[in-house]
């Protein structure tokens, strides 16, 4: 629904069609009461996809669905952006191990471009099939890549501690996302087993050439949206606060959606709420020679729908911020 909201207000989009696997033919009223004035269509069935009339298709279903759905639609003069994990992992055995599902065909995995446009916009531009990054990897990688690429931190020392709002768990309520269980409580889940671990390691490898194994844990926070990734690593002795700040500024000065704050700024997930920004800060600890990096995003925007629209903009040679210019809502 966030994707639909963004696309409906996008100045370069003529028409958006909505498809559903379970509610074809129904009017979207209950789920999208908040979009009452713009949802003026019944949900369509997937069999009705007019491939030759569409420019771009977003697939926004849980992992495993696009492995079945997308292969027959690929390479048909239609650009595809998949929001799920299916096309993100290049090694099929790695995908099987972490997702416990069968991967898509090799040719399509090889064709898919990982859409972290801040780091590979040239590939995104040429691509017809984008694997939109996961929410946690987006937050973690945008904070870490500048430091890893320049050798500022020791990869083996890296620990990523991430926290997410409950909308990260999708639309269907489960025991784990029940209000009474989460309200007034903080929980840890999928310890050392999160499916985003191989995605982060693979992207570090592809962008910096570093083969490393990360320690990554995730927590559920009783809030609707937002991710904070707090990352700890040993700083190489040749670097200090000043050089870290310079590297961040160099990496992101011309990147619209990454905002680098001064060292030790207190960041809030709410300062990016409803926006496509990723906000970063850091603190160097001279006593321990460790650095802490903090990254915040809105999981539904920069972590999913916003980043998907940003990728679409780059693929169609539009300004990458088209349709995503709005500031965060605060408080
Ligand atoms: N929530 C988040 O913070 C993030 C989400 N993503 C990705 O964004 C996309 C949307 O996320 P989110 O809305 O949370 O996802 P959900 O898990 O809530 O699923 C979205 C919709 O997928 C459809 N769907 C299609 N096939 C199936 C199936 N076999 N089983 C269940 N549902 C199915 C359902 O709609 P219908 O029945 O109408 O077809 C469902 O409402 C996903 O690809 C997800 O991986 C990425 C990063 C962050
Ligand atoms: C809070 C919560 O449950 N979050 C989800 C990640 C959401 C996401 O990024 O999903 P995909 O990688 O599937 O696209 C999780 O931890 O599995």
TrEMBL record:
Pathway info: Amino-acid biosynthesis; L-arginine biosynthesis; N(2)-acetyl-L-ornithine from L-glutamate: step 3/4
Residues spanning the signal sequence: none
Enzyme class: oxidoreductase
Gene Ontology cellular component annotations, sorted alphabetically: cytoplasm
PROSITE patterns the record matches: ARGC
GO BP, sorted A to Z: L-arginine biosynthetic process
InterPro entries tied to this protein: AGPR (IPR050085), AGPR_AS (IPR023013), AGPR_dimerisation_dom (IPR058924), AGPR_type-1 (IPR000706), NAD(P)-bd_dom_sf (IPR036291), Semialdehyde_DH_NAD-bd (IPR000534)
Domain Semialdehyde dehydrogenase NAD-binding positions: 1-127
Active site: 135
Chief location category: cytoplasm
Catalyzed reactions: N-acetyl-L-glutamate 5-semialdehyde + phosphate + NADP(+) = N-acetyl-L-glutamyl 5-phosphate + NADPH + H(+)
Protein's cellular compartments: Cytoplasm
UniProt entry tagged with the keyword Cytoplasm: yes
Keywords carried by this UniProt record: Amino-acid biosynthesis, Arginine biosynthesis, Cytoplasm, NADP, Oxidoreductase
The protein's Enzyme Commission number: 1.2.1.38
One annotated GO molecular function: NAD binding
CDD domains associated with the record: AGPR_1_C, AGPR_1_N
Record's function text: Catalyzes the NADPH-dependent reduction of N-acetyl-5-glutamyl phosphate to yield N-acetyl-L-glutamate 5-semialdehyde.
Protein family (similarity comment): Belongs to the NAGSA dehydrogenase family. Type 1 subfamily.
NCBIfam families listed in its UniProt record: argC (TIGR01850)
Name of this protein: N-acetyl-gamma-glutamyl-phosphate reductase
Gene label: argC
